[in-house]
Amino acid sequence: MEEQDFIGPRDVLGHAERAGAQVQTTLVRPSAPGEVTCFFGTRVTVPTAWEPADADLLIVPGGGDQLIKSPDVLRNLVRAQQAGVIVAGVCTGVMVLSAAGLTAGRPCTTHHLAKAELAAQGGMVIDARVVDDGNLVTAGGVTSGIDLALWMTTRECGPSIALSVESIMEYEQRGIVWRSS
User: Is 91 assigned a catalytic role?
Assistant: First the structure.
């Protein structure tokens, strides 16, 4: 996975929890706890195996091309969304969601270099940093994961918590979130 794709959203949600939101973040791996080597060599210890229905929100970071090749992961992404989990993708993590069939015929976005491929796979590509289609929320390139997490904080916890997080991080959400009606 790409480091910023997961650590940016984790930072936002961690600060939301400290600001009083009912948020708890957990890093998960599809098969079992263990170590993940990120895109730039950072090693992260992941303490928990992923159980598809055990969250309210699942964020899939980019850089995990091997996830696309795992039929179990793809089936479990569908299972998670069917169980009521909001499934989100950052950068090329959206391509994993596409491989699972979750973006077909739905508004979505991804990294600018993968937008043509996402469209070819049936996604209705929107030119926005964050696209919210209810139980599917997608974000463009690397740093847009921060915007995705700030948007989810606004949507689920309220704007005062999101503003508090922006203040702590000294970061302001970029762009307008495209939302389906």
Answer: yes
What's the whole-number mean pLDDT along residues 142-163?
A: 97
Q: Model pTM?
A: 0.96
Who's near 18: CB < 8 A, 6+ residues apart?
168
In CATH, what is the architecture of 3-179? 3-Layer(aba) Sandwich (3.40)
Residue 127: how many other CB atoms lie within 10 Å: 11
What residue ranges do the domains of the chain occupy? Answer: 3-179
- Position 104 scores a pLDDT of 98
Catalytic entry in 38, 91, 108, 157: 91
Q: Are 18 and 78 in contact (CB under 8 A)?
A: no
Give the DSSP letter string of 37-51: E-TTS-EEEE-EE--
How many degrees, rounded to 5, is the angle at CA 64 between CA 55 and CA 54? 10
Task: Decide: residue 158, CB within 10 A, 0-12 exposed, 13-18 middle, 19+ buried.
Answer: middle
